[in-house]
Amino acid sequence: MLKEFHLRLGDSQVKLALPEEQIIHVVEGKPAAAITDVPAAVKAALQQPIDSPPLSEVVQAGDTVAIIASDITRQWIKYDQFLPTLLNELNAAGIPDSNITLIVSLGAHRHHTEQENILVYGQEVTGRVRIEQSYAPAGEDFIHVGTTTRGVETYINKHVVNADKVILTGGIVYHLMAGFGGGRKAIMPGVAGYASIQGNHSFCLHEVVGQGISPSCISGKLEGNHMNEDMIEMAAMVKPAFLLNAVFTPEGKFARIVAGHWHNAWREGCKTVEEIFGVPIRAKADLVIASAGGFPKDINLYQGSKTTDNAYMAVKEDGVIIVLLECRDIMEPPDFSGWFDYESLYDRETALRKAFTVPGFVALKTGLMARKVPFIIVTLPENKAFIEKAGLIAATTIEEAMAIAEQKLGRKEYTITVMPHAANTVPLLQG
């Protein structure tokens, strides 16, 4: 008995029929109801927060308030839909717009243009409050606030340090290094200095040079994740007054708004992300077949890394992975594709230890995973050279990929897990 799947590849669909008795899991996120009235949901969260008095009691009339907001790389957070409600609540509590500064948490990303500020935060917000951009390499903008227990000197943007009250905002999703996004990430790396970011992110690498990446810095893991624990210490130094974070449905609509204590409310949001996107599996499979979910999630290999990372969590150590990634912009972004120019993974790792970047980490992890398990990438014919340079196997059709997979497995009888939306779904092995 064959089970038919239609998996996305770019703007098209790939048809695949698999023996039903060999399929052990189809990994899909759970349906989640979308919030229909976002401003009302935000207002309710601000007035009935988690482990905190209402926002109106947290701030005092006349306070200066810094709101930390994510940059254009997190445009999916849809700030324009909830920041006006936050500003209105602050106004009602005696904080005029003139006392509020929106801090763009660039980390080490480039500055926004004025037009990009409008695009991300909306015309109303940019017209109401002052906007400052926190750019990590601008050393003069940062103040030393302490040292973490792991020895990282913590520098935070002066506009944040000098505000009477600090409010963290953002979106919560799975994060391949920090476990989950949102929460404390507004501080680290959002408004932290460059040396602090380098120090914190180094915990993603193995303690022993040459051993690659830390096994504790993975999607969904918070306890024992030294990067996350260091981030939490840094955020605590700022003493954030409040948090407002959003969780989204698989379709990208608002699923839940969490507000309140900067750490506890965020952890509640993480639980909701797990409920929607964390998919329990009973066992790992011999063959994992994964699609990112089509364009734009498979626009390049860098975006596709979320898919390869999640697929790797579902495969046996001696298994094989097939990933459908069109990669129409295969060489983008340059600060990712350039990492594959290193002769060896060791060279890639040592360069990353000298100057950490997230694209560099993703490139290293991609190479390390591919060294352990064959990754067959169904992609455009012109991508073959780059895919092979990255240590992966290129195929132009699903039929070709299946033939290579069977050859690698060396048998016809094998278990299969299918992940139709693998960019968003995280397989969680039970027990």
* Percentage beta strand: 25-35%
* Major sheet size, sense and barrel closure: 6 strands, parallel
Strand order of the largest sheet: 3-19-15-16-17-18
Morphology: globular
Class of secondary structure makeup: alpha/beta
Give the N-terminus to C-terminus distance in angstroms.
30 Å
**How many H/I helical runs?**
15
* Domains, number: 2
Low-confidence stretches: none
Mean pLDDT: 96
Indicate the CATH class of the largest domain: Alpha Beta
The CATH architecture of the largest domain comes to 3-Layer(aba) Sandwich
Radius of gyration: 22 Å
CATH topology of the largest domain: Rossmann fold
Share of helix among residues?
Answer: 25-40%
- The CATH superfamily of the largest domain turns out to be LarA, N-terminal domain
Q: How many β-strand runs?
A: 20
Give an account of the 3D structure.
This protein has helices spanning 38-47, 55-58, 83-92, 114-121, 123-128, 158-161, 194-201, 226-238, 264-277, 301-312, 334-337, 345-354, 358-372, 384-389, 398-409, and strands spanning 2-9, 12-19, 23-26, 65-70, 100-107, 130-135, 142-147, 153-157, 165-171, 174-175, 179-180, 242-248, 254-260, 278-281, 285-291, 315-324, 375-378, 393-395, 416-419, 426-429. It is an alpha/beta fold and 431 residues long. It has two domains: 2-29 and 282-429, Alpha-Beta Complex (2-enoyl-CoA Hydratase, Chain A, domain 1), CATH 3.90.226; 38-276, Rossmann fold (3-Layer(aba) Sandwich), CATH 3.40.50.11440. The strands form six sheets. Strands 3-19-15-16-17-18 form a six-stranded parallel beta sheet, with helices on both faces. The protein has a six-stranded mixed beta sheet with strand order 6-5-4-9-12-13, sandwiched between helices. Strands 1-2 form a two-stranded antiparallel ribbon. Strand 15, helix 10 and strand 16 form a beta-alpha-beta unit. The longest helix is centred in the last third of the chain and has 15 residues, at 358-372. It starts with a strand and ends with a strand. The relative contact order is 0.15.
